[in-house]
Specification:
DNA-binding; Beta Polymerase, domain 3; 5-stranded mixed sheet; DNA polymerase, domain 1; 25 helices; 4 domains; alpha/beta; Beta Polymerase, domain 2; 7-stranded parallel sheet; single chain; globular
DNA sequence: GCCGTTTTCGGCCCGACTGTTTTCAGTCG
């Protein structure tokens, strides 16, 4: 695990452990915030930690947190965490993760029933002794049982590529049954996060009860968790296109049409972005909730229940405008400084329709299912002006990587296809392996014959950060390389991948006008959003490629573009958004 | 524990839902 990830986890632990000791909630929050700030860092915290002022400059990191970070970097542990773990059994951290079980309940279970882990919780449920606790009835326990079962099976957050089609299907069914209602997908799906906690769907409808009923009785609903007047919550058992079953939660919220904008903001989140906006509202004598932006007053009763007229609420742009800030696109709403984003950068933010080329795709020559012509036709149908054929290199025998002899013939075949097919430029390239020491899988003489070179790491993905940095720098600095494909080799939820010094890669990429790739496949999304942010802040070129092996892989482009937007990427820095002339001139500049 | 174009001390977002309650605590997002 990278240092950032480990340290973020340590701070999260401290927050949870403090919560279980009944500590002040603001202190708990402060630690949770530091955890989030560290997890969002593109640079290695071990580097940053050398400079105490740099730590203190991070929003949410104060003197005490800086001390703890430096202690961790020196000793590999934060003594406060160790001390807390002497007081609080570590197994309770797992118990706390069960939905519906919060700090108060877990603390009670621990102190009254000596529950210190999930198995012991299961025991007091099974023998019924849990019912002796105050406010603990049959129904609560029944829900707890199901939640434990669900947590054991579901195993964490769902990749966006799995959740998005499920959400699309649900909305399609609801729309068909209730054509007059207005539906919006909100939550982390709308923000384009790489993984999704649950599917949030918003509906403005007159017959809200009927819509909620349709939702709760969908065939994929496994269990109804809540069925209120405005909120329904269900657990889904849904199959993906490959036939695998996924367990995840979905919520449907019914809102009045006049507050759809405020509701959409509220349910899109992120929670932390919303907190920022509410703080901003309070400073202006206003209060913001999911019903709208209202004048703030002393009254305890929520304004919408007293017939107070909102200042804004019908649309998102009304609310942002009334707060005096630019409309922040959903992908940016992560409390990463977006409320202060410069207008120019916002106006030039990359859009899906800006993408006019794909520079990383496979054919039947290696492990794809499309011929060169088929690939070109699919790309043309997407409105691209250029498609690169980049089959695997020789060190990928599993993927039918091309020997130098086969590659020479393949280049010819690609150029011939380019002659035959009108309306799109088909260019010859290769996805060349970056070997563990940074050497490329073909010699320069051969690479020179290619129109585009995508250099990617495939093996040795557990090497140490220093070796990884050296390896990737070598490829970035190589004069014949255009793009570094999926630079870290990580797989969402499945493989950590390399942890190179991202700022070093960005600096070198800038110097050599090499582009770093956002691989758009939902299993990769590599570079990830915080890396893209650092790259685009530095003015580094980014390529967004689908790494298509089959025609529908191009559908993943939306996820890649969302990651780019989460990294505040403007269209000028995305080589796939360039005109034919500009793109090809850059490609030739490396020949 | 952090933070400051009203504050270096005194604040720190807001509402819905559930299950257990005779008015509300706990959890969630």
């Amino acid at each position: 695990m990278s240092t950032n990830k480990e340290l973020a986890a340590s701070f999260k632990d401290i927050a949870s452990l403090l919560e279980l000791t009944g500590a002040d909630k603001f202190r708990v929050n402060a630690h949770a915030r530091v955890s989030r700030v560290i997890a969002d860092l593109a640079e290695d915290v071990a580097e940053l930690g050398q400079d105490r002022d740099a730590l203190l400059a991070l929003d949410g990191v104060g003197a005490k947190a800086a001390d703890k970070i430096q202690e961790y970097l020196e000793t590999g542990e934060i003594s406060e965490r160790a001390e807390l773990l002497e007081q609080v059994p570590s197994g309770l951290l797992e118990v706390l993760k069960i939905p519906g079980l919060g700090p108060k309940t877990v603390r009670l279970l621990w102190q009254e029933k000596e529950v210190t882990n999930l198995d012991e919780l299961q025991k007091v449920i099974d023998d019924g002794s849990i019912l002796e606790l105050p406010r603990m009835g049959k129904k609560t326990v029944e829900n707890m049982k199901k939640a434990i079962e669900f947590a054991r099976q579901a195993g964490g957050r769902t990749p966006i590529g799995i959740a998005a089609p499920i959400a699309d299907d649900i909305v399609a069914v609801l729309k068909k049954e209730h054509p007059k209602a207005k539906f919006e997908v909100a939550g982390s799906l709308r923000r384009g996060a790489e993984t999704i906690g649950d599917i949030d769907i918003l509906v403005a409808a007159k017959n809200s009860e009927d819509v909620a009923e349709t939702f709760r009785t969908l065939p994929i609903v496994d269990q109804v968790l809540a069925a209120g007047a405005t909120k329904s919550s269900v657990r889904l058992k849904a199959k993906d296109s490959a036939g695998a079953t996924h367990l995840l939660q979905a919520d449907l919220r019914v809102v009045p049409a006049e507050s759809l904008g405020a509701a959409l903001m509220y349910f899109t989140g992120s929670k932390h972005h919303n907190v920022r906006l509410r703080e901003l509202a309070l400073k202006q004598g206003l209060t913001l909730n999911e019903y709208g932006l209202f004048p703030d007053d002393e009254d305890e009763t929520p304004p919408q229940q007293r017939g107070v007229k909102p200042v804004a609420g019908k649309t998102e742009s009304d609310v942002y405008e009334a707060l005096g800030v630019a409309l922040v696109p959903p992908e940016l709403r992560e409390d990463r400084g977006e409320i202060e984003i410069e207008k120019k950068r916002l106006d030039n933010l990359l859009k899906l329709k800006d993408i006019k080329a794909d520079l990383h795709a496979h054919t039947t020559a290696s492990d794809g299912v499309m011929s060169i012509e088929q690939l070109a036709e699919v790309a043309k149908a997407r409105g691209f002006h250029t498609i690169a054929v980049t089959d695997h290199s020789k060190s990928q025998p599993v993927a039918n990587g091309l020997s130098p002899e086969r590659l020479l013939k393949h280049i010819e075949a690609v150029h011939e296809a380019d002659e035959r097919v009108d309306g799109i430029s088909i260019i010859a390239g290769s996805e060349v392996d970056i070997l563990a020491d940074g050497v490329l899988d073909y010699d320069d003489e051969l690479l020179e014959k290619l129109d585009v070179v995508v250099a990617s790491p495939h093996w040795a993905l557990t090497q140490d950060p220093k070796s990884a940095t050296t390896r990737l720098l070598k490829a970035i600095e190589h004069p014949l390389v255009h793009i570094i494909g999926h630079p870290t080799g990580r797989l969402v939820n499945r493989r950590e991948g390399l942890s190179p010094a991202i700022p070093d890669l960005i600096a070198a990429a800038n110097e050599h006008t090499t582009a770093l790739e956002i691989n758009a496949h939902w299993m990769r999304l590599d570079l990830r959003d915080v890396h893209v942010r650092a790259a685009s802040d530095a003015g580094c070129l980014i390529a967004i490629n689908c790494d298509a092996h089959r025609p529908d892989d191009f559908d993943n482009l939306r996820f890649g573009v969302q990651v780019a937007r989460r990294g505040w990427l403007t269209r000028g820095l995305c080589v796939n958004a360039w005109t034919h002339k500009k793109l090809h001139s850059w490609l030739k500049s490396k020949r």
